[in-house]
Specification:
Distance between the termini: 42 Å
Structural class: mainly alpha
Strand content: under 5%
Number of helices: 21
Order of helices and strands: HHHHHHHHHHHHHHHHHHHHH
Largest sheet: none
Length: 429
């Protein structure tokens, strides 16, 4: 029954996806159908849905999403752009570097790639267009930079991964993502500057370089956010879930008291928007739990894992195959969905080859970050393209350079696990 059950489960899921069914619905329907056909207990559907989302670490997801939306509305991104412009200066390609640096800092607040890309695009796209950067190029740079948000802590992706892989704690994953996140950002700066100089982008930038100290004073409240969040967790003052609550309170204080860019009516709109985003994420997690229960009960994931192990190929060959699968999946699905669909298959492989779970999680997340700006269904590129009013087709000639650059950084992380593991070890995780 194992082989037939696996084919039934995966076959229904693939057919539903090909007919355009939303990912959450496809996961839930495929799991429910398999449970019903093989008489696994239909009451396991609501139970599985509830237990899938009733996990304490998952409480951090909607709260971090709320924190990201608050900081976006508070005007933190604009002040960070001002500071980055003061530090980087005005030269050919400088605005591309500014966009990447601001996206990296904002990623340390929101933990969400699309939210990061939207916040930076709103501020940077008009400035880059005035300076002579083609909108399609600007949209590509910001979409790629926004992808670093799921690597640089706090990361929603790492929280989901830690729930599915208990051997990897959230603090260890957060620490492990720091160096790869910086490496990813640096890898994006190289093609951004090279392409700008090769094509003469930024020659029309007449912006006066702002005074560094003045810009720093304006951005200090935004810069302190990642320090408070990560420093509090490192010191043991609060857990990752409590850190999310602290981030919300701090963001509300900055927006309503310090910058005074938000009022109580704006706070209501922020709560409504973040609730909608959070509901979508948690719905996917709940319905994917039904799919996961059906797959594990039928033995589908173990059968696939044993099939791969039975090929008698080297661990490196399997690792490259896994990353290729993740890269292709990332072009079509969001990171949370891929975690929930593929980790039941990948975790047995990880344990069989004795790969470090923290390193594997960061590497997997870095791969999925690339998928966020890789056509044809790149979620970050959809966001920035909508702001820039350009088609995804027009960005392909530019964005592929950034895909190649971050893929190079991914290969380094694959080859040198200490790029991930050094900081967690130093911090005692």
């Amino acid at each position: 029954m194992t082989g037939l059950g696996a084919l039934t489960l995966l076959g229904i899921f693939v057919v539903l996806m090909m007919t355009g069914t939303p990912i959450a619905v496809a996961l839930g329907l495929a799991g429910t159908a398999a449970i019903w056909v093989y008489d696994l207990g239909i009451m396991s559907v609501p139970t599985g849905f509830y237990t899938g989302i009733a996990k304490y670490p998952l409480l951090a997801i909607p709260v971090f999403i709320l924190a990201g939306v608050i900081f976006e509305r508070a005007g933190v991104a604009a002040r960070l752009v001002h500071l980055a412009s003061a530090l980087v200066g005005t030269w050919r390609g400088s605005l591309g570097v500014v966009a990447i640096l601001v996206a990296m800092v904002m990623g340390g607040i929101s933990g969400s790639g699309p939210a990061d890309a939207a916040a930076v695009a709103t501020v940077m796209l008009p400035a880059m267009t005035r300076a002579g950067y083609p909108p399609a190029f600007s949209a590509s740079v910001i979409a790629a930079a926004g992808a670093t948000a799921i690597l640089i802590p706090p990361s929603v992706g790492f929280i989901v991964y830690s729930v599915l892989v208990p051997e990897a704690s959230v603090p260890a994953l957060f620490a492990g993502g720091v160096i790869p996140g910086i490496l990813a950002g640096v890898s994006l700066i190289i093609p951004a500057v090279w392409l700008s100089r090769r094509h003469g982008f930024g020659l029309d930038d007449k912006t006066v370089r702002p005074p560094v100290w003045q810009a720093f004073k304006g951005a200090i409240w935004g810069l302190l956010a990642p320090v408070i969040i990560l420093g509090g967790m490192r010191s043991g003052a609060f857990t990752p879930t409590e850190a999310a609550v602290v981030a919300v309170a701090y963001g509300a204080f900055v927006g309503m008291v310090v910058y005074r860019t938000m009022g109580f009516r704006d706070l209501y709109d922020v709560l409504a928007e973040s609730a909608e985003i959070s509901a979508v994420v948690l719905l996917i997690i709940g319905l994917a739990s039904v799919f996961g229960y059906a797959g594990s009960t039928l033995g589908a994931f173990d059968a696939l894992a044993h099939g791969i192990l039975g090929l008698n190929v080297s661990p490196w060959s399997v690792l490259l195959l896994v990353n290729l699968m993740l890269l292709v999946a990332g072009m079509f699905l969001d990171a949370v969905s891929i975690y929930l669909i593929m980790l039941p298959l990948l975790v047995p492989l990880m344990r069989a080859f004795q790969w470090d779970p923290v390193w594997f999680g960061v590497m997997m997340t870095m791969n999925l970050a690339i998928g966020q700006f890789t056509p044809p269904l790149a979620v970050n590129l959809m966001v920035t393209g909508a702001v820039a009013k350009v088609s995804m087709e027009s960005t392909v000639r530019w964005v592929l350079w950034f895909v190649a650059a971050m893929t190079g950084a991914l290969l380094l992380v694959m080859a040198i696990p200490d790029l991930v593991l050094w900081l967690p070890r130093r911090l005692g995780y």
